[in-house]
Amino acid sequence: MAASGPGAPRGIPDCLKKRRLLHDQEISPELCRQLGEKFLALQWWEDALEFFAKGGVREGLARLREVALAAGDAHLLARLGERDPAVWRQAADTALAQGKLHFAFRALKAAGDDEAAAALATRLGEPPAAQE
Hints:
Layout: H1 15-23, H2 29-41, H3 45-55, H4 58-71, H5 74-79, H6 85-97, H7 101-111, H8 114-123, H9 128-131
């Protein structure tokens, strides 16, 4: 790939090229994997997710799931389509330990632990309905 726009590392598509690639019906799974790996190395999780999902790169998506769990990143976990309440509980515990209270709240809600989510909303100083 050619050099990217200002601010983007060499070999990384700029936002317009990225959009074209993601809408390309002919893009190969291998190119999606390569780009996903580059974004993953840069810790650009959302971009990595887009390319891994587009190319059906399961191992890349699994690595992003590990990243989301290690970081307590409820947003990334939701984008990955996680449904297991035990996984959400693990993400909530990690987020709490790291002081990421809004992520913890979201993970507790996804885990179905409305009581703990309500207690955390109170701790955040907001009514539970305002957090949803």
